[in-house]
Amino acid sequence: MPDTTPSADWVIAVDGPVAAGKTTTSLALASALGLNYLESGKPYRIIAFEALHRNLHIDELHAIESLCEDLLAASDDASVLASDRYAPQALRLRPITALVPLVARIPGVRQHVTRLIHRWAALHPRCIIEGRDIGTTVFPAARVKFYLTATPGVRAERRVRQEPGLAYQAILHDIMRRDYADMTRAVAPLTPADDATEIDTSDLTIEQVVHRMTTMCRKRGIEQPAAGTEAPRQLATPPSTQDT
Ligand code: CDP
Hints:
- By secondary structure, this protein is α/β, with parallel strands linked by helices.
- It has helices spanning 22-33, 41-53, 61-73, 88-91, 94-103, 107-123, 134-138, 152-162, 168-184, 206-219; strands spanning 11-15, 36-39, 127-131, 144-149, 197-200, 234-235.
- The protein has a six-stranded parallel sheet, with helices on one face.
- Cytidine-5'-diphosphate (CDP) binds next to α2, α5 and α9.
- Residues 18, 39-41, 44-45, 100-101, 104, 131-134, 178, 182, 243 line the site of cytidine-5'-diphosphate.
């Protein structure tokens, strides 16, 4: 595969399991430091969404890979990530969330998504990207890498607080199943990069986590650009539906 990796000099990678605090802290950091922001789970969710709508079975690998070809590889300007077709709520429905880790295990899917993220990052330098494999695989030379984590119980409580209708035990079960799928897949499993700063957010407030992350970024020379330079563009889901 040709190397499509753009410069990682201004990339901040934020990896970790579900509800570890990636989205909230990444958005805060993006705002504090004037960075573009990308949720790298989105393209995986788009593929799961389209696969479900086309009644594809997860075993139909060729059909799923050609779906990636049509949707992701053809999106030269990475605009599929901003398409109106993929409302944040629709991408976060339970059947989609259950299917995503299965889709994300397919090596061809990961290759297409990685190239799409590289295209996006080339168009949006100075960025923060959250996901599962950004510091290990997508941008192994990222200037700053964080790995956020928290105990499964704390993460399940966070999800229940976000959506009070959800049952704690069911959410805990979903979280553990997703962790297992993401951590044990053959390609680009969820694991901290050797040079990532690990933060256990279980007993920390959002402000404390953001403070640690901002301090580290500033130490590495990442600062808010001078006034008058380009404002950050963000591709995120609304706060009510996000990873906490
Ligand atoms: O926000 P939340 O943690 O619920 O999930 P997400 O970031 O939208 O990611 C959904 C799923 O996509 C994850 O559970 C992974 O299976 C997959 N994913 C991945 O494999 N690699 C990434 N860089 C991002 C997401």
